[in-house]
Design brief:
It holds the Pfam family OEP. It comes from Flavobacterium resistens. The protein has 443 residues and is of the alpha+beta class. The chain has two domains: 310 residues, Outer membrane efflux proteins (OEP), CATH 1.20.1600.10; 82 residues. It has a four-stranded antiparallel sheet with strand order 2-5-7-8. A two-stranded parallel sheet has the order 1-6. A two-stranded antiparallel sheet has the order 3-4.
């Protein structure tokens, strides 16, 4: 039933004031389907296909159509030697051309040899893989943020439950002290201390309620969920289970590392594309045109109007051989090489960082598990002390100070436990991330 609810929410959206029970898996699935970051990463994957098509287009024939209509109110004249026309020693000023000229045609260009095109085609597969890995990394980042905020919401809610329980118990003590005060069996200072205690607890409750709202809003933001949605988080989501020891993961399988390696591969292709500036290029060109000329606008005119139409065509090869570019190409190649070497340093640093993340996560897991076990025992003892102190107080064997101290100790033990659970769960997420297994949280 929960899965059906989540599917409906993901497909049609959440209505105002809706309420839904979210397991961690439900929250993660919803975030991956609705968060803008995840959607944009998938759009980038889709867009990469169009970028690849753009690169491939450079290897395909480029065909275009063109046309023009030109009116020459004044035709340029050319001065020529009259000897060519049987008038030696004279100069003839002749006008060549017509008042109107119209031209229409098709042109084709086909690259035969262009090293930059060939390099771009080889880089196309790497381009696609880069965006696919980036999409995976984005999903992992969304999972990590949602999981950490999900656990933080739980801790704040547990704190509120504890404060509510403390407030309820302190209210009962207040009623007892007030009854004793009314009967002359307690001092006014004792009643005032209880009232102050209740006021402080209530203030803490209000602060925690505000923190819960802020934390829930952050969680819903990271999920891409409407802020007005009311969420319910099952308690069993937060059981702290000791993590089993595993071999040190191979950081070269981590998404962050794979993305950098793919980026390095693309930079190598970029360097080769720049080096293509040293190579000659050869292309085939062809064109077919139809031209009309005459003393009036050629369109729809006939030879009887003095307008004549004719066609012409041309086929050729264009060869471009770079000889000297002012060392510009060499400078670009060296810049591309610097980018590669800089990224390689980032890769080395990232490997160290990923290994550090795993070892730190394991240390945090171990430390927090010990803390949880200690705090569980502290809670048990604090609960017993509070129960015994309360009974002794009602029997007049303990002072109000003893009772308030016992309540404070019990509340502090509860808070320490919930914080330890939060730290453990966050460390658990970090450990799963360091092993490259964040996707397992949605399986």
């Amino acid at each position: 039933m929960k899965k059906i609810i989540v599917i409906l929410l993901c497909t049609v959206g959440l209505s105002a004031n809706a309420q839904v029970t979210l397991t961690l898996k439900d929250a993660l699935v919803y975030a991956l389907q609705n968060k803008a970051d995840a959607k944009k990463a998938k759009l980038e994957v889709e867009n990469s296909e169009y970028k690849i098509q753009e690169i491939r287009s450079r290897a395909l024939p480029q065909i275009s159509a063109n046309g023009n209509l030109t009116h020459n109110p004044i035709i340029q004249t050319t001065v020529i030697d009259g000897a060519g026309f049987g008038q030696p020693g004279t100069t003839i000023q002749a006008a060549f051309g017509q008042k109107w000229t119209s031209n229409a045609g098709l042109s084709l260009t086909q690259a035969i040899f262009d090293q930059s095109v060939f390099t771009g085609l080889r880089a196309a597969k790497s381009t696609r893989e880069f965006y696919q890995i980036n999409d995976q990394l984005t999903e992992e980042q969304v999972i990590e943020r949602v999981a950490n905020n999900y656990y933080s919401v739980y801790v704040q809610r547990e704190r509120l439950k504890l404060l509510d329980s403390t407030y309820f118990n302190t209210t009962k003590v207040h009623d007892v002290v007030k009854g004793q005060f009314d009967n002359g069996l307690a001092k006014k200072i004792d009643l005032d201390r209880i009232i102050v205690k209740l006021s402080n607890i209530d203030t803490d409750r209000q602060q925690v309620k505000n923190q819960i709202e802020l934390q829930e809003n952050a969680l819903k933001f990271y999920m891409g969920m409407p802020i007005e949605t009311q969420i319910i988080i099952p308690k069993e989501e937060f059981e702290a289970v000791p993590a089993s020891l595993t071999e040190v993961p191979n950081v070269e399988n981590r998404t962050e590392y794979l993305l950098l390696k793919k980026q390095e591969e693309l930079l190598v292709f970029n360097k080769k594309a720049v080096e293509a500036g040293y190579y000659p290029t050869l292309s085939l060109t062809a064109g077919y045109n139809y031209i009309g000329q005459g003393p009036q606008m050629p369109w729809f005119a006939k030879p009887s109007d003095g307008v004549y139409w004719s066609d012409y065509a041309a086929i050729g090869l264009n060869l471009h051989v770079p000889i000297f570019t002012g060392f510009g190409t060499r400078a670009k190649v060296r810049q591309a090489d610097i980018e590669i070497r800089s990224l390689q340093e980032d890769i080395k640093d990232t490997k160290l960082s990923l290994d550090l993340d795993y070892r730190n996560a394991m240390a945090q897991i171990d430390n927090n598990m010990v803390t949880i076990q200690n705090q569980q025992e502290n809670m048990r003892l604090a609960r017993e002390i509070l129960s015994n102190t309360k009974n002794n107080y009602l029997q007049g064997l303990a002072s109000l100070t003893d009772l308030l101290d016992a309540e404070n100790a019990h509340q502090e033990a509860q808070n320490n436990y919930t914080r330890a659970v939060l730290n453990y769960k966050i460390a658990e997420v970090a450990l799963i991330k360091s092993k490259g297994e964040l996707k397992t949280l949605i399986k």
